[in-house]
Amino acid sequence: MPDYKLNINGESHTINVEETTPMLWVLRDHLQFVGTKFGCGIAQCGACTIHIEGVAVRSCQLPVSAVGEQKITTIEGLSEKGDHPVQKAWIEHDVPQCGYCQAGQIMSAASLLNSNPNPTDEDIDEAMNGNICRCGTYTRIKAAIKTAASN
Amino acid sequence: MSLIKTSYGRRSFLKTSALAGGGMVIGFSWLASCKPSPEEIANLPKEWFEINGFLKIGDNGMATIMSPNPEIGQNVKTSMPMIVAEELDIAWNNVIVEQAPLNTKIYTNQLAGGSQSIRQGWDGLRMAGATARHMLKQAAAQKWEVPLEEITTENGVIHHKKSDQSLGYGEVASLAATLEVPKEVALKELDEFSIIGTATRNVDGEKIVTGKPLFGIDQYKEGMLIAMIVHPPAFGMKLKSFDASEVKKMPGIKDVFSIKTYEDGFNKSMFDADAFPELVVVVGNSTWEVMNAKKALKTSWEPFEGYEDVFANFSGDGTFSKSVPAGAENTESHMEKMEELSTKLAKEVRKDGDPEKAFKKAAKIIERSYTAPFLAHNTMEPMNFYADVTADKAVLSGPIQTPEFMEKSVAARIGLPLEKIDLQMTRQGGGFGRRLYGHFVVEAAAISQKMKSPIKLVYTREDDMTFGNYRPAYHARYRAALDENNNIIGFHVRAGGIPESPLFANRFPAGAIDNYLAESWEIASNISVGAFRAPRSNFIAGAEQSFLDEVAEAMGKDPFDFRLELLERATTNPVGEKNDYDAKRYAGVLELVREKSNWSPESTNNTYRGVSAYFCHNSYVANVLEMVMEKETPVVKKVYCAVDCGIVVNPIAATNMVEGGTVDGIGHAMYSGLTFKDGKPIQTNFDRYRMIRHKEAPKEIEVHFVQNKEHPTGLGEPPFPPIMGSLANALYKATGQRHYNQPYITQKKVVS
């Protein structure tokens, strides 16, 4: 099995795994970055969303061999002190119910705001449509994204 | 001030330390990164004094409050400690919340189900806080040598005004911890509440948004192996054989074997329901390696013979059995069978007056049938559990709604006495009833025992969605008899399901109509079912409220007026005695939502409205849903909800629950369904199983609570059922067509 040198949250990590191993399991099983969640394994629910160079990607369908030297950001590295505007807005609106999907929701929202700092309702719907929340916190998520955008 | 005898709920005063000899591990927490940050540690007290099982006071005046019940997203981990803190009279920002260990001697009802946590916990939680406050006051009175009656408290500070002395709880905590539990304590008056009724954010909020390990599936321990299961591909099938010779050679694979989850002759509880009692298990070093081995495994399956499954009932004092027939079932034949049974006489459950006569002399009869499919719970966190079973003890940890029940099942399975089992509750990525059925807890224990290693059992989404314990498939046929003046003179509901009926014979409109008949039927099935958020109500509410809408229309009445007239009748002159609702509170939520939505039955600005109301799990919810059509697709613009759950403990979380239940209800009624071919679920993951998504959620939800001083009741389930009725009723206005069969949108758009 080959070695992979990965840049995760600004730090270098070397791991030895089989090349098809999805980043989701590299993060969760091998590096204990468990904030990135397993939901469906087929890129349909968004719970495993991470950033590759600031762009939201479903880590369950991203083989470790495809990452190369690109910068990976997980929920643990989104901000140093948990004070990214999206995280703060999530607390302000008390978004989570069970909370399981929220790391993925936050990563999708942060990626949206990276590329579009003032999204319309339609932009939000479009960017967030791949993230399922079984508890039904969608209206709060939208409100929190608007709050984050205004900050 | 109301005095209350502490003899009630006496068990609340047991200290956990006194029970430590019983094999309980106190403060066991191996979610290492959940430890407090250095800043937090700097503020922590040097010593804690346990006042009772619910709380400890630190020497610096901070309090640790135990949250007794499983947290599945209903926010009890915040709201239950709020109730203790209120009566303790301490500032909320000086409170640390911990998940209590499983110990029903102290915490009684440690089960997440039936929206009962707050309702059943309320008195005991208040008592625990009030007793501690009383003992702290007693300690201060002793120290200052002043009468207890002259002592007051305020936000964690004890005052003696006459001598102008004050001290913090922390200064007398060590003395208070040695005092006898008082026989009688004072509870606060409701208007003295400062924490209850104040928006209080989720105690785990910061950990959730920063991705800290909180959930069962996040658990990791040095040397831990990953286990996954392979279950039969279809209901009606069992394991015949498997060939693991190649798979065992795959990288990272430790072992492949089959297990029986429950041993023959085990006296199962209702929470041991399990359609696939024999499984193949793959164990290895990492999830991806085990997933690959699982895919490569060669298995063969065979049909099973029909059997009777016997379970102990909830209280454990009796049994009931379920017939599990052989065969491969199909949705198509399910639908035909349900339609057929709905036209035959069924089991009479309630009869008032003479319904036969009323229908015979009716000038007009309205008859409609409603259906809904099986549903999978689809908690976002798939089933999983951690287990470390050794020769003399077992440590288990993970997401489970029924820890007390499963501890017993595990003890029996691995042959250890109950006191050697330590079962811990993690935060749970959704419950919705799925985690009431803990076969996966027993599987984890059995696998760990066999492997002689700590293991984490993880289901894939497909394993999870195809394992059963589903919401049953339902059917309801309604008839209403109208006289020549369009008055309702008879009502008939005949409801059934596969394999359980959704009927609640004593609910509204029973009690409001003179001639009433309720019948029930069931069709046995080998597709396993279980409680799903608001069991039975989650279908019958929408069916009934759609039907009442149609009846109101036929009578030429406004849908609010019609419902309120029936409720008026049920209030002033109820029919029968066993009516399972309070007609006044029912009418109260309808009146509130009519006012808040500025109701008008006519469509304005192309906005179409539907109304619905329901009572279940002790709370009342009514709503008005506003819909527009955009490119022939219905869009829910706004939902107004009115809720009567008594005293609202935490308004921000209560509102969140109502919003979530509303979104979830629209989602399931509109989009979701599980169908079968040859016993196999056709939908196995979120590519084919439709869940509501961002775009489809209502654009706005407005929640209003009835302000009263009633005993608080739950919100996990009550907001979920009624919205399906207002959705169907608005869809009718928007499309001109009644929708009888869920999911309303099976393809891309509503047939209009």
UniProtKB/TrEMBL annotation, chain A:
Protein name: Aerobic-type carbon monoxide dehydrogenase, small subunit CoxS/CutS-like protein
Keyword RNA-binding annotated: no
Transmembrane intervals: none
GO molecular function ontology, one term from the record: oxidoreductase activity
Keyword flag Iron-sulfur: yes
InterPro entries for this protein: 2Fe-2S-bd, 2Fe-2S-bd_dom_sf, 2Fe-2S_ferredoxin-like_sf, 2Fe-2S_ferredoxin-type, 2Fe2S_fd_BS, Beta-grasp_dom_sf, Diverse_Oxidoreductases
Keywords in alphabetical order: 2Fe-2S, Iron, Iron-sulfur, Metal-binding, Oxidoreductase
Coiled-coil boundaries: none
Automatic annotation (TrEMBL), chain B:
Pfam families (alphabetical): MoCoBD_1, MoCoBD_2
Entry-linked SUPFAM superfamilies: Molybdenum cofactor-binding domain
Example of a GO MF term: oxidoreductase activity
Start and end residues of each Aldehyde oxidase/xanthine dehydrogenase a/b hammerhead domain: 210-305
PROSITE patterns: PROKAR_LIPOPROTEIN, TAT
NCBIfam families per record: TAT_signal_seq (TIGR01409)
Protein name: Aerobic-type carbon monoxide dehydrogenase, large subunit CoxL/CutL-like protein
Organism: Galbibacter orientalis DSM 19592
